[in-house]
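User: Here's a chain of 223 residues. Predict its fold as tokens.
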Amino acid sequence: MRPRKKTNLIPRLEACSAVILQDPVSLKGQIREAFPNPDAPLHLEIGCGKGQFICELAARHPEINFIAMEREPNVAVIATEKALAAEPALSNLRFILDDAEKLPDIFLPEELSRIYINFCDPWHKHRQYKRRLTWRGRLEIYKKLLCPGGELHFKTDNYMLYHFSTFEFAAALPAYFSTTDLHHSEYAQENIMTEYETYFSNLGQPIYSIRAKKPLLAPETEG
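Assistant: Prediction complete.
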């Protein structure tokens, strides 16, 4: 369901321009320069929603630069306003208002150290499987953008999407962690919940999760 159009959307987004990367395709190769510490590791959340997860993550880890991508402006405006209102200021967080299809046009190969995909659209119909953010074709794209040793963290409340994703990860980016109950796993304590996750976990819905790591470069063999 498309979110309702927010009142005064355009002026509200303009007021948040300090944290929004305009025309990100033109910034390819220069994304890091948008941060006070351009040499810090760069993490990306695809589909940040209202920003609860990424704002908390950026607050906990000032040593890392974060980019939150959200294609729906009526949702992104809430996240950007939340980031600007944070105290202390989140100088390590920037937003891109665009679709994940543009990722290869925005980021360089091996530029990202981590990618987060939280509660994406499950695209229930079988013929829509290539639209799922965890389809193996998309995972191959993420793998190219991740540096050696970089990680992809995925969470969902949809069992069928999780089940589908286990096969896709196995084909493209083998997982080192997979669970049908994240909130009772070894990663429960460090887990930061999204707005969506908070609501459904309070209803007793289990949260499914997969984490994968891009292999390190193989050592060169002597001739």
